[in-house]
Write a structure and sequence with these properties.
The protein contains 2 helices and 38 strands. By secondary structure, it is mainly beta.
Length: about 400
């Protein structure tokens, strides 16, 4: 009996700190603890030992040296990096280098002060960044290149692109063939270039929603030469550069396809930008096709609600149920209906409240066609006798 107990103790020790023990369903997941109460002083040391299904538990604190990922997780058994007792801050010139690896999750971790990118993934897949942060980088913050199946949720990205317009990529870049990416519940603010940027993705299948993106050089949300992107229920504003809108749709010359298509922009509030609330721009030439811009509110922008500087449009382009609080707009190639130009009766715009006040002319004045099922606050549409115009549906008792 004593021998069996000792063998069991030995087996437990191996399961925690050595090669994986085998269970009925495969290797037993292990936890590698980093910090003053753990076995490992650096995150890198623990990461180099981890296998699929393992967790690197990082005590709250600051850890120099950055982190380079060298191993993949596996389907259903990701390798997890988790701050415990607070946020684990990784510092160092190299930031977090994901490379082309996959099945990885990062929770309650912040990367700070990288000399290049905060996070860089190229050819990676199946990543989760939850309650993740990037606090300062000379180039882009969280950069995904040719990367698939990514969820970015409840994150805070700030102070990136310290090199300004010479910096590579943006605060949050979804670039060059990346696809099936969802960004939600994030704050992306006070960065030196674009906030959230989807670019050069001909089959992107990207969703950007319920984020607050403010105070960036701009645009705050930018979709360039990409296809199948939904931008909805975001609050954007305060771009700093006079040529940058709150939301920008574009075709830049770097693109090979020179095509922007199947973009839906709805339920967004875009205010206080140095240029327009929403801009459409082609650097030299390119095609914009099948754009749907519905139930947004634009107000308080220096160059109006909508600015169109593009030359070729195709397909069906719809502009409906929008509040253009900065006055009349030129709808250009859009089929436009049920929009309102001017002050429709906001609740308290001086204090940044662009909900519709009682008696607003925008209440019940919208079209149900292609109207979103919910507003920016999550209120079901319609709440009254009809659909309201703008990002907010007026609540009724």
């Amino acid at each position: 009996m004593a021998i069996r107990v000792l063998a069991g103790v030995a087996l437990l020790a191996v399961a925690v700190a050595g090669p994986a023990a085998e269970g009925a369903a495969g290797p037993v997941p292990r936890t590698w603890r980093v910090g003053p109460h753990g076995k490992y002083a650096t995150v890198q040391a623990a990461a180099d030992l981890a296998r699929p299904g393992d967790t690197i538990a990082i005590e709250a604190g600051t850890y120099p040296g950055g982190l380079t990922i060298r191993r993949d997780g596996a389907p259903g058994r990701p390798i997890r990096f988790a701050g415990i007792g607070g946020t684990a801050v990784l510092t160092g010139a190299g930031g977090l280098a994901v490379g082309g690896h996959g099945w990885l999750e990062f929770t309650d971790v912040t990367v700070s002060g990288s000399a290049r990118f905060g996070v860089y993934a190229e050819g990676a897949h199946d990543l989760v960044f939850d309650r993740f942060g990037v606090d300062g980088s000379r180039d882009g913050g969280l950069v995904l290149v040719g990367t698939r199946r990514v969820r970015v949720a409840n994150c805070d990205i700030r102070g990136t692109n310290a090199r300004g317009t010479a910096a590579d990529h943006e605060a949050l870049s979804i670039a060059s063939g990346s696809s099936e990416v969802e960004v939600s519940g994030c704050r992306v603010h006070d960065n030196g270039e674009e906030g959230i940027d989807v670019k050069y993705d001909d089959a992107a299948r990207v969703k950007i929603h319920h984020n607050v993106v403010t105070g960036n050089r701009g645009p705050d949300v930018y979709v360039d030469s990409s296809s199948t992107v939904d931008v909805y229920a975001n609050v954007v504003g305060g771009t700093r550069e006079a040529t940058k809108a709150g939301i920008g749709l574009a075709v830049e010359d770097y693109s090979k396809s020179r095509l922007l298509s199947k973009i839906r922009v709805f339920d967004n509030l875009s205010t206080g930008n140095a240029q327009a609330g929403l801009s459409l721009w082609a650097e030299s030439t390119g095609t914009m096709r099948d754009l749907t811009i519905v139930n947004n509110t634009f107000a308080g922008n220096a160059r109006g609600s909508l600015l169109i500087d593009a030359d070729r449009f195709a397909g069906t382009n719809t502009l409906r149920n929008n509040v253009f609080g900065d006055g009349p707009v030129d709808a250009g190639p859009f089929a436009a209906d049920h929009n309102f130009a001017g002050e429709p009766g906001f609740a308290d715009p001086a204090c940044g409240d662009y909900h519709l006040a009682a008696g607003s002319v925008a209440v019940d004045a919208g079209s149900p066609e292609h109207a979103p099922a919910f507003d920016l606050d999550g209120v079901a549409r319609p709440a009254g006798a009809g659909f309201d115009i703008g990002a907010y549906e007026r609540r009724w008792p």
